Amino acid sequence: MSLLESMLIIGGISLDIFAAMEIQGAMLPQVKKINLAKFCLIVSILQLGFFLIGFTVCYLLSEHGIISQPEYYGQFLAVGVFVLLGARLMAKAIRREFVHERRKDSITVKEILNYILLTCSYTLAIGCVFGLVGVIVWQVLLIIVIITVLVVITGLYSGLHYGFQNKTIVYAVGAVLLWIAGVEILLHEILMIL
Fold it and tell me: What pTM was estimated for this model as a whole?
């Protein structure tokens, strides 16, 4: 999988984190730097942990021959996963969940964990796909950290300054990014066959 594909995929699933942080940021009078640093650290660790679990399991399955032709099947599994995750994000965009906005002095880690753990399940699936297709792991881990920190920071500040009305657009953009990555992988596989 190319670096661009990896960035599209991680960016697509991370936009769900952006929307969650935007909702939380909309309820704050100000963003405290210490809380921001904690959120960046915790969300990054969770994302990395779930990715590594999925990656390790599927990588070991392919290395021990339990899954034959892992790269071939991994590419098609990737397309399926991206379509499903994209559809889920698009459904969230269309559904437009009601969020009861109320002012808080601060956000606790416990409050954001519910949102983040669901997104980490996406990261687990993506890690599994990456474990099958073969990627340079340290590059993907670096991409995860950079994008996660960016979406946490921009999500909180976006919510603080603009509210959370844009979350539906963010969900839709995340879905489109995942679908673009899926189409690109599918086209690449078709061109390889021809």
Answer: 0.80
